[in-house]
Amino acid sequence: MSKLCSIIKGTQFTKLINSATFLHPTRNFARSHRIANLQTESFPSNPDPSSSKFSTVNEAEILKFSQLAEEWWSPNGPVKLLHSMNPLRVAYMRRQYSKCSEERGENHFPFKGLRILDIGCGGGVLAESLSRLGGSVVGADASWENIQIAKSHALKDPMLHLGPGKLEYRCITAEKLLEQGEIFDIVCAMEIIEHVNNPLEFLRTCAGMVKAGGGHLFLSTISRTPLSYFLTILLAEKILGVVPNGTHDFSGYIRPDEIQQEVQNLKADNDNNATNDSHASERWGAVTDVTGIGLNPITGRWFEFYKWVPKRIQLDVNYLLTARRA
């Protein structure tokens, strides 16, 4: 314990917390500009860099999660925290979307008729859940291995293909989807923004595919604070080994106020809804909710913080965010 305290109080930890990793993401988050574009149709082993103008894909992150592909659906495997978090994510999305669509409140298929993108879908944990709730879901991931695992798992349950939901998987980047003119009622970017190059550019790309007039963007990620470093990297990775060492990169964490500021600055003339009318230069929309979440170490279940808990505490580590398109 004394060794742990010395690490926390030591100069190396202090330098890390006060270093350039705390600069605003738009200034220096693009640590690597390696391009990794994947063709959707042929799934080539050597992607063509010319397939898209720009990509926020981080090759090292794609390789890391591709190596976990075989264990995506192991409830006690290296991504077990995603499995335990999934019910909370789905419940949050249902509740937030029902605020603008009351007739869906008690519906067994709240996302029926909605086109949903799960970007960075991995093995399809969230995508399958949304499909079961009636959504027409496109699960997209830049890892060919992850997409194959997701497709294979979806075939194990015939109920997934009986409707009303639909499910398809594509090996493709967010930038390529935007380039193809895709538009969705809901775009989900769950536990992915911290794993890309230039997170705020990735956010703009996702926002550009949200349908105008009430479309939703859902995100979940980790805030960049001393506490988040201690809990998610020092404790979870290096000491307890709850997740594989190297899963997270502290410099990729992004605070909720940074996302809120970026959404506030977004314009509607840079997405797939843009037209030539006078409304094209209006603001994209607004963040409508930010909720902090935590993990109960005894039950192993995720929970939302009570509203009376100060935001500075509940948003110090993991959080969920909703943004609504104008």
Automatic annotation (TrEMBL):
Full protein name: Ubiquinone biosynthesis O-methyltransferase, mitochondrial
In which pathway does this enzyme or protein participate? Cofactor biosynthesis; ubiquinone biosynthesis
Superkingdom in the source lineage: Eukaryota
Family statement: Belongs to the class I-like SAM-binding methyltransferase superfamily. UbiG/COQ3 family.
Record: residues binding S-adenosyl-L-methionine: 89, 120, 141, 190
Q: Where in the cell is it found?
A: Mitochondrion inner membrane
**Could you read off the lineage of the organism from its UniProt record?**
Eukaryota, Fungi, Fungi incertae sedis, Mucoromycota, Glomeromycotina
Q: Name the gene behind this protein.
A: COQ3
- List, alphabetically, the GO terms of the cellular component aspect: extrinsic component of mitochondrial inner membrane
GO BP terms, alphabetized: methylation
